Amino acid sequence: MIKTNLRPVLAATAVALGTCSAAAMAAPLTEMGFQQGAGWVNPTTDGSAVTGFFGNQTFAMIGGVMPQPRYPANVYQGMRWTSPPNTPNFPGYSQIELFSFTDSDSPSAGAAALGDTDANSQWNAGEVWIIDRLLQTNYIISGTFPNPLWIADTLANLRFYSDADTRANEIYLDPNSPTRISFYETFNHPGDPAGPDACDSSNPLNTQCDDIFTVLSTELDPLQFAYDGYLYTINFALIPGPGVLVCLGGQDCDGIVPPGTIRVFTPELNPGESDIFVGMSWTAQRIPEPATLAVLGLGLAGMGFSLRRRRDRT
Question: What is the CA radius of gyration of the chain?
């Protein structure tokens, strides 16, 4: 009795589902184009009670205001802090700059070692491509180094395109996306204590005293958007340059990194440069069509009705 009642319902449901599946459906993208435009917000003028520069060095934004519409309004390429005035023995400076890329000029384009697994200069699903480069320049400076030395926000406009390279068809824009970064500048001149034992913080690179960047793990949460029947998930990660160490929350990097945070250790160099990269990858998943879900719901409802009818007759 159950089979007799269920067979027509199941058959009708299968036909309807097959019809939906056979209908013309768009295929997922095999490659995407992107354009990232990120810059620093001046932490001393942004009106925030949290951000700021807290040392006694001379602080300034560098690189000029980045152009719109690629970049958000009033963001700069970098920040610089120099020794306090009248310190001739330590005339140097330290700075952090932010460089953004598109799919056509990303360092990953065509480079298998950086994520382009087929080295075809196309950003395909699953490949990790670089969208930002943070360049730290480190010279001898003096002054007070509170912890942190500065807290600053970056803002980014991240665009996605269905047509790679030409970037003529924008399918999603993530505008004015903020990331908050803290930085701890450590001793780096001959007049200060030297050696790992003198550092008052973690020193996993075993330099004079590693510099430390800190960011909340949630700042790298995935981004999702729907396009042409598919859900695209964008994942982000910090990629260390040579001599740089990225430590996730819970890891032991000369001390346990607090859960929910990411710490990046850069070597104490004089002079020297350190790179931190932001990588991005994507996946696509088919979104069930409303008609398919509705037919499936009718099929399940029909099965329930047949079962109830059989129970009523027994």
Answer: 27
